[in-house]
Structure formats: structure tokens, C-alpha cells
Amino acid sequence: MTPIHSFPPIEDASARTLILGTMPGIASLTAQQYYAHPRNAFWSILGGLLGFDPKLDYTTRTQRLIADGIALWDVLQSCRRLGSLDSDIETESVVANDFGRFFGRHPHIQHVYFNGASAEALYRRHVLRNLPLVSDRVYLRLPSTSPANASIPLIIKVSAWRAVLAPRSRNYTNRRRPR
């Protein structure tokens, strides 16, 4: 099986928040766009929370994330996987992205949100141990926006994803490394 590769990050020097997925699915790889599957709720949720139409063209949507200080990337640089499910990733094929270099370019990122449990688990297993401890960086797993996570109603996902707005609030104090 041929390895698949993630995309470059959607980023800007002013980023203070990072949202991490695992690895783009087939629809995203085909479109060369993050969260391109029509039933993935990512753009719908972020558009609603940040006040933009999720049906805007891809470039405009990513510019809206950047304008709100949000970077977007995946934990994995490459892996082998049949299909789009994170559970089908061949463990021995996993290559993580270079987060040491990424955080070096983005020293102001203090909030890291995982789009689902797989992203958090892979980050913990393949990335975190290679990074210096940053005491004020907040990590939080959010429910996956994937259509494969249909057991969680959209309203619950939206409620959880409101945490992405929390860095704008002084009351956000959940400062911890991922479990």
C-alpha cells in the first residue's frame, strides 16, 4: 500500500490557536483541501462559531481561520491507510509532522485543539515526548467532526467546539498536557 501524505499547515505568524486533525480522508486528498467531505461538520461548525458562511470558497474559509488567529494542520505527515478511517491507519507506517519546527515558527500558539480522539492519541504517542514542556500551552480534545462520528449529535459537537472561542476569554484556565 502506498503512503498517503498530509497537507502543509494553514498558518500565519499571528496564530495563537492550532487545530489538529489526524490525516486527510479520501475526499480531502482528492480535493487537496482540509475537511472536504461534504458530511464533515468542520467548516459548518467553525463557520457558525466564527461568523462566516461555511459554503464560501476554500481559500476564503482558510483566510477566515487565519484572520481569527487559528492554524490548521494534521498530526501525521504520512501513513498507510486503506480508506478514510483513522482506525485503519497502519501503526508501523506513521510519520508525525515536525512540531518542533512548527512551534518554533509559532511561539504564540497557546491553545491546541484535537479534532477527535485519534488525533490526540497520535500526538501524545508520536509528538509530545519530543517537545519541550510549555507550561502555558493548553491541550483539549474535541469531538471529531467526521461523518464517521455520527453517534454524537451536531448540537453537542457545536457546544464542545465553542472551546475554540475560549482563548478570547480571560476565564479560560484549563492549562494541561493531553492525558
Summarize the structure.
This protein is an alpha/beta fold and 179 residues long. It has helices spanning 26-31, 42-50, 58-67, 99-105, 117-126, 154-161; strands at 4-5, 17-21, 70-74, 76-79, 95-96, 111-115, 138-142.
The CATH superfamily name is Uracil-DNA glycosylase-like domain
What is the third-level CATH name, the topology?
Uracil-DNA Glycosylase, subunit E
For the terminal residues, how far apart are their CA atoms? 32 Å
Q: How would you classify the helix and strand content by structural class?
A: alpha/beta
Portion in helices = 25-40%
Gross geometry: globular
Describe this structure in words.
By secondary structure, the chain is of the alpha/beta class. The chain has one domain: Uracil-DNA glycosylase-like domain (Uracil-DNA Glycosylase, subunit E), CATH 3.40.470. The protein is about 30% helix and about 15% strand. It contains 6 helices and 7 strands, in the order E-E-H-H-H-E-E-E-H-E-H-E-H. A 4-stranded parallel beta sheet has the order 3-2-6-7. A 3-stranded antiparallel beta sheet has the order 1-4-5, with helices on one face. It is globular, with a radius of gyration of 15 Å. About 35% of the residues are buried. Residues about 170-179 have low confidence and may be disordered.
Describe the structure using short key phrases:
3-stranded antiparallel beta sheet, 179 residues, alpha/beta, 7 strands, disordered C terminus, globular
